[in-house]
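User: Reviewer 2 asked us to show a designed sequence for the structure in our supplementary figure. I'm pasting the structure tokens here. Could you produce the per-position amino acids so we can include them in the response letter?
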């Protein structure tokens, strides 16, 4: 009994030293003993939970600020982990005086005296309900952004598929054009060869005409005797033709008759 009394006196003394600083603090602060009895709360803690006077909360149990479910799922496991580690930070669900739940980010540490003896727990809390709303909005925005990214990805895939199709068609057209060019080049080469051949033939013909004309121009006129011999030679040649021989025989017979 004396030990418990001394402990509470130590807590009260420690709390008294903390009160001046705690009341000036912006954050909510609570001090409880290991039995879960509230030894101190500052004004910020009281108002966070819907109370105007922090003094009316002294002596109440810590479950005043939590539902039964919150005590089982959040508070008791959190306190046990603080006892094991010496301190802990994380989200903890609370309830206001009007029954409205809200979420806090808490830091809780073991309160010790000057010689290091554990006296209780001191907790610092910040209402992050607004942050939760912001987080919900951010989550909604991220989901919307993910949808936009997915939609844009599909659009880009469709555009890329169309581009690949167009490229394939263009390659086919280019291949066809190259084939046509090769065929036209072959036809052109053949035509050029024919033109060259005709040109050669024309050159040969022109050469023959030129040579004939040159021979005619350089020929020596025949004498009268030579002309007579040529005439006789031609007649003999004509007489050797069968049709002419027959005509000659028929004519001779007729004259004799």
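Assistant: Here is a per-position design you can include in the supplement:
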């Amino acid at each position: 009994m004396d030990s418990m009394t001394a402990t509470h006196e130590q807590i009260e003394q420690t709390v008294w030293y903390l009160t001046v600083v705690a009341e000036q603090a912006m954050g909510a602060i609570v001090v409880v003993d290991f039995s879960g009895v509230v030894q101190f709360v500052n004004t910020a803690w009281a108002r966070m939970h819907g109370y105007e006077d922090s003094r009316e909360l002294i002596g109440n149990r810590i479950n005043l600020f939590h539902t039964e479910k919150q005590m089982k799922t959040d508070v008791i496991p959190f306190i046990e982990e603080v006892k094991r580690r010496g301190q802990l930070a994380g989200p903890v669900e609370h309830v206001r005086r009007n029954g409205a739940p809200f979420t806090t980010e808490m830091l809780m540490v073991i309160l010790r005296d000057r010689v290091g003896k554990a006296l209780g727990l001191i907790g610092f809390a910040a209402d992050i309900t607004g942050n939760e709303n912001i987080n919900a909005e951010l989550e909604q925005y991220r989901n919307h952004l993910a949808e936009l990214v997915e939609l844009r990805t599909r659009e880009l895939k469709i555009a890329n598929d169309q581009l690949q199709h167009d490229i394939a068609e263009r390659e086919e057209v280019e291949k066809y054009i190259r084939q046509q060019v090769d065929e036209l080049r072959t036809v052109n080469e053949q035509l050029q060869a024919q033109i060259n051949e005709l040109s050669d033939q024309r050159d040969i013909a022109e050469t023959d005409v030129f040579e004939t004309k040159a021979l005619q121009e350089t020929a020596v006129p025949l004498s009268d005797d030579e002309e007579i011999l040529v005439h006789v030679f031609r007649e003999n040649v004509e007489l050797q033709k069968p049709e002419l021989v027959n005509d000659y025989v028929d004519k001779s017979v007729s004259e004799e008759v």
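For the response letter, you might also mention the following. Residues 137-200 form one domain. Helices lie at 2-24, 43-48, 68-85, 129-218, 224-239, 242-256.
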